[in-house]
Structure formats: structure tokens, C-alpha cells
Specification:
Layout lengths: L15 H16 L5 H17 L8 E9 L11 H4 L5 E9 L5 E3 L3 H9 L3 E3 L17 E9 L2 E10 L7 H17 L3
Antiparallel strand pairs: 1-2, 1-6, 2-3, 4-5, 5-6
Length: 190
């Protein structure tokens, strides 16, 4: 059963790798026996938020941590026609997150999130002001990492993390967020 103690991270000598390993371990425990992506992503968004807050800068300057999910993975309730019930497979819709309100829809190929979704690969942007087509949901964001969550070789969701400092993400972030994406791909019914 999930417990609030899952969100206590680090310690006086914990490295970023140590904290990320704790995120992976806690996420593994929290998703065990639960296949619903809404529930799993909600808990993991909270874990990420608290993990970044426990670290020194630039990680502590993360101002948004969450997910976008491919539109066809949401139930289409209240649709009266076949056309209304057909969700798009090239649109990401806002999912569970921590931070300020965010863009609700992002098309594949647009911005950092859409680029990662379309390419099916992690995108690390040291300075979002230099990324062509960056979508500024929060003007205080300066760097970003987006990791696709793949199921059956297709992007079904993405992990999106924003930071208020340039160069907020490195290879440690990439390594562990890609591990987290793999865990979530396997732990949820898509």
C-alpha cells in the first residue's frame, strides 16, 4: 500500500544518483499490483517533485515534473458519434504533474515534448530559448528534459521535467529517467 514515507529523499550525503535510485525503487513499489496509468503516474509525479526538491541546484530548481499521455489512451466519455469516439494518436494530452498549470495539448513534432514523442527518443535542451518552436507553458522554464514512454514500439506518453536554470539536466537525469520510463511502460495497461 502506498505510503507518504515514499516521498522522503536523500540524506546529508546523498548524490543525485542515490536520489534517483530511490525514485526508481519507490516507483517500483508504488506501481506493484496497479496497472492503471493515472494512478501510477500521479504517484510518480509526486515522487519526482519531492526528489528534485531534496537535491542541490540546479535540480532543486525544477519547476514542473509530470507527464503527457497520447490522446487515444484516455477514455472518450460522452461521445455520441464514431468520429467523436476516435481519439488521435498524434496528440499528447496533459496528465498527472506537479507545478504550475500547463499546456493541455501538444501535437507530435511540436516543441520539446512533441519532438521527443515523434522521434521516440530523449531530448535534453540546455536552454529552451534556443530550441526552435519551444512551447513556453511557463516563462520561467530555462531547460528541459523529455523522455518518451514506449509500448509496442510506439510513444504512449512522455515524462517532462522543466528547470528554471539553464543546463538543468545531464546524463544522470537521462539515465534514470529512461529507466523510469521503461518501468512505467511495463507497469501500465496501454
Amino acid at each position: 500500500m502506498p505510503h507518504a514515507d515514499s516521498s522522503y529523499f536523500g540524506g546529508p550525503n546523498a548524490s543525485k544518483s542515490d536520489v534517483y535510485q530511490q525514485v526508481i525503487d519507490q516507483s517500483t513499489g508504488l506501481v506493484y499490483g496497479q496497472r492503471n496509468w493515472v494512478s501510477n503516474f500521479s504517484n510518480v509525479a509526486s515522487l519526482l517533485w519531492h526528489a528534485y526538491a531534496s537535491l542541490p541546484a540546479p535540480s532543486s530548481s525544477v519547476n514542473w515534473a509530470g507527464f503527457y499521455i497520447r490522446q487515444d489512451k484516455f477514455p472518450v466519455l460522452g461521445a455520441s458519434s464514431a468520429e467523436e469516439r476516435t481519439a488521435k494518436t498524434d496528440v499528447l494530452v496533459l496528465g498527472p504533474f506537479q507545478g504550475r498549470p500547463a499546456c493541455q495539448e501538444i501535437r507530435f513534432g511540436r516543441g520539446v515534448c512533441g519532438t521527443a514523442a515523434q522521434k521516440k527518443e530523449t531530448v535534453v535542451v540546455p536552454d529552451v530559448l534556443e530550441f526552435p518552436g519551444h512551447i513556453a507553458c511557463d516563462a520561467s522554464s530555462r531547460s528541459e528534459i523529455v523522455v518518451p514512454i514506449l509500448s509496442g514500439g510506439e510513444t504512449v506518453a512522455i515524462i517532462d521535467i522543466d528547470c528554471t536554470e539553464p543546463n538543468g539536466f545531464d546524463e544522470v537525469d537521462r539515465k534514470f529517467l529512461e529507466q523510469l520510463a521503461a518501468l512505467l511502460a511495463e507497469s501500465c495497461d496501454w
